[in-house]
């Protein structure tokens, strides 16, 4: 996808950018990352960014566990940009640096908190087996309840969409930033 020049956005694109900047992501939002891609299809982008804002800022899932799940998703998809953005956010939300390092290396986080281990088991089982066992489900449901489980699935679905978007369109990390994972051979 070609980069867009903010000065040359059409009416629908300008409206989408204004909506994103007026939301919880703030006025500093730029046309990089998934939002730069979404701008090429502003009707889709409007729906995606609204869902994303809710998933990131409006669910009952704590920011620590939400950001942890985003990192597990980013690692699964090897979504460099997603990892680059969310690793510092996860640490600020309370995910320990050693846990982040384990995830980045593709290891199960050995010393993660019990709730993070429950999230990790659920996410990796879902992504790996395309299902979760009753035991894995019940373990996470005890933390989140019914509504929280629905919201959690929304978080996973949205950030998988973001990861796939970033990967398919090869959205680069900012200049000078290191790639967090080895590039897969295509």
TrEMBL record:
Report domain Carboxymuconolactone decarboxylase-like positions. 42-124
GO molecular function list: peroxiredoxin activity
Superkingdom assignment: Bacteria
Transmembrane regions = none
Matching entries from InterPro entries are given as: AhpD-like, CMD-like
What start and end residues bound the annotated signal peptide? none
Q: By its UniProt entry, which PANTHER family does this protein fall under?
A: 4-CARBOXYMUCONOLACTONE DECARBOXYLASE FAMILY PROTEIN (AFU_ORTHOLOGUE AFUA_6G11590)
The name this protein carries in UniProt is Carboxymuconolactone decarboxylase-like domain-containing protein
- Give the source species: Rhodoplanes roseus
Its lineage reads:
Bacteria, Pseudomonadati, Pseudomonadota, Alphaproteobacteria, Hyphomicrobiales
